Amino acid sequence: MTILRRWLRRPIILAADNNGPWGGGGDDNAGPRNPWSVPPGGRRGSAKPTALDEFLKKTRVGGGGGGGGGRPQLPLGASARTLWLIGVGLLVAVWLLLTSFHQIGPQQRGVVTSFGKYSGMLEPGIRVTLPAPIVNVTKVDVEQVRTDEFPQDGGETVLTGDQNIIDLAYTVRWRVSDPRNYVFEIKDPQETVRATAESAMRAVLATTRMNDAIGAGRGLIEARVTQTMQQILDSYQAGVRVQGVSIKQASPPAALVDDFNAVTAAQQEAVGNLNNARSYSQQVIARAQGEASAFDQVYAQYRLAPEVTRRRMYYETMEAVLAKTDKTIVETPGVTPYLPLDRARKLVEPTQGTSTAPAAPAQGGQR
To answer: What is the pTM of this model?
Structure first.
């Protein structure tokens, strides 16, 4: 009820005060007093003006400004305008310094664009251009050899031309050859090079046997992949030069390592047998060539003296044949029984050292 009575009395109080909510006239006890007006006793205290009062006084146009009930105006003075101009000038100077002067390193080239369009190339040194955004300069390192590892995570499985699978790991080295094409022709140069390398490697291995991929054919594969990559990148006008491809690992899958090791051992054994066969064939060929040369020499002598050479060949042949056989010589006329001394010698030799000796056969005669 007290709150309701206060709200009912409020219109009466406002009607009695004709100078606004702060009062301003009449009796001091008639209502709330204006805090900005002079107190009833005269001037407000004798306090000295503060630094804020001095600043406000300096920033007023024409100084002064009475203490009436009006709102004071605060336009900028000459000193504030000077500070603003100095600040703007410094910002413009920094902007020109950062966007108009370009330091190009010895290994770099600067690709210049005017309003987004190619307009030239900056050589190494300190170069000056129009400020941004009128002119922009993109620095490109043309000497650095970049290296990409394949695969980035885990192993890469590749299918060979003979329908076998191998685990492959390799690296690709490349650098920028044309900065203009490198900046404008492809959106993401590194990803483009990686995609090109993977495509070229799979294309080459699709026509290569597994034995060549994991054996002595790596050098040829690397050269073919490098050539294929360069052809693809040149068709894109990528401005990239492939320095080389190196195969770090080419092996069968882990589940088939034992089987492939057995195959490798068999292949090595086959190579060893082949080498032995070639060595034996060379020996046989050399022996046959020697015999042919000797026959040619004999034939030359035979043409000079056929009868003598024929008889000599006969004797040499019979000597070689009869030297390894038992011989029985029979003289004519008449045949006389003989003691086979050669056979007796052969029978006696195993029993040498014994006291027994074979009985001599009786001599033949008349009965």
So the answer is: 0.51
